[in-house]
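pinned: reference chain
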Amino acid sequence: MVSNETEQKVISANELLTNYGHAIQGGLDTGATYLKAFHTLSETQDGQALLSAAVELTNFQLNSDFVTFPHQFSDEDVQLIFFERLLTLADLGTDFRISNAERVQKLLCKFTSLGDQTFTFTKSTKNPDGFFFGPTMHNRPLFYIDLKNKELMFHGSALINYFVVDLEGVDKGILKGVLQLLTQAAAELKEKFGFKVDFNVLDSVNGEFYAFAAGALTDSVMDELFVKSAENQFILMTDGIGGASLTLDNGIKVTVTDNGKPDRPKWGAMVHDDQQSENWLYLLLDYPFIKEWYLNNQKQLEILSNQFVFG
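pinned: its structure tokens
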């Protein structure tokens, strides 16, 4: 007769202590690995080492059943430390600083030119490696970054709502300075680290097509632009097929056109600037009548961003 009872192995006191010791040592070794990566994150002068350390520390499981570290930086903090160090290494960090670095908690940062406005990173609910950067007082994800997969995407509508609407009245030179810092950081990631970057409304390359959310535009929207342009001594010229172009100061030209098909319109705008420094967001800051036109018709004119990431 075969017994169904399973013999239970009895662990001796020495084996128990040995297993316990191994578990403690394993937890301490994990802590040492974390500490080494964190030291690299905070001290290295090598950009690639900085990125590797930030990726390693993101989603790092520091605690174990036997060893717990009570004071830890969050994954959001790691992204912020990385971003601050990136700016420093690229000599771009004079206006950007971590504002509460004296405490181990959720870190905040400031652009000194914007006064008391604070910003932080927030983890994506869709991707554990993805994070949104935005102001703490508004739900405005200004950009999305994934260090592991080397992606950065700007969110057009959030950028406009924050810099054009929320910060209305702030000197546009200050606003452009902050926006330039963000685009320079993104360009650094693209050029030096091979990131895929979507600049969206901050893209100043001539011919960039800013697609409107509505797809099709009503005649009343274009009529309003005609009127507002004339009121501000600018002439909006039609192209004969429903679109139009507007020549502004310093030879800047804005074209509103349909890049779609007859059965599937795809309206949007393009900006031509010989210096390639003007973009859609800057236009709203530089020309109040264009800003008013955009905000009056924002539901139709909103510039599309990646809907999976920001939707």
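why pinned: DSSP finds ten helices and twelve strands in the chain. The two ends are 65 Å apart (CA to CA).
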